[in-house]
Here is the input.
Amino acid sequence: MDLKNKEYIDNIKSLAKEKKAVIFAHYYTRPEIQECADFIGDSLALAQQATRVQANILVMCGVHFMGETMKILCPEKKVLIPDMNAGCSLADSCKAEDLAAFKAQHPDHMVVSYVNTSAEVKALTDVVVTSSNAKKIVDQLPQDAKIIFGPDHNLGSYINSVTGRNMLLWNGACHVHSRFSLEALLELKKENPGVEVLAHPECKAPILAQSDVIGSTQALLQHTIKSPAKRFIIATESGILHEMQKACPEKEFIPVPPEVTEGVGCSCNECEYMRMNTLEKLYACLHDEQPEMVVDKEVAEKAVSSIQRMLQMS
Ligand code: 13P
Ligand code: SF4
Here is the structure.
């Protein structure tokens, strides 16, 4: 680790200690951000953990909807987020007014929403899910329930396939997970015969069809720790490789590259929104105690029940 980063990390940790603040980071953030965190986790673990800590200042290093979820669950706490502009292409693919109009066309349907949504969308939702509990929660819904699932079409198709449901799917996607190259994956499998493929359910169906293990970031990490295998092909945002490599230094992780479209995005599998969390911004955010997450009271009061229902059903 370069010295500048190490100094920054030490300063951030001592400032957090001084302010009795707790730092949370998602697995997709930069390695140096994960090094500052008191808790690293997937979307579900971060939401659960936020409700358990005593601190009055919570810093969420992730993306906007994660800070919002934290604030909705802990309205009396100060929730800070290093960059308010850290959005999510998947959350952006479902606007609350569009969902409201869709609901009006299907008044007999309940709404199950992925946690990657705005507070306004959660306020229109019956139950929120994450990639680690979606199957478990959908399995608990009445067999004859008519369900709208959004916004991730890939996750929705996968959950339909493993639950035997026929949920009505919103047509949203994550720009990182939907661009993994099937051709490159098939090539990697040919070059590495017998090596297990681990994929996040936000990936497209052809990628999932080629995968041995499908799960949330946390589930994939746990699998690499428990499995006796020494090498894995990984189809999810590359930030998770930091924690995998740290937990299993003797194992090898081979990332699946994205499709390369000339002039569009980078040729890596990084989420640029997650990468907006930098050490400089994290330090400034702790120091200045801003930007602070604010959620409209009325929206938060409606959204909290769909999140609480998820926590009860997990
Ligand atoms: P999980 O953390 O639930 O695996 O979801 C990944 C994700 O898309 C975060 O943005
Ligand atoms: Fe959103 Fe995709 Fe980034 Fe996750 S990886 S925060 S789903 S854009």
Q: What stands out?
A: Residues 28, 63, 88-90, 116, 174-177, 237, 271, 273-274 surround iron/sulfur cluster (ligand 2) (CB under 6 Å).
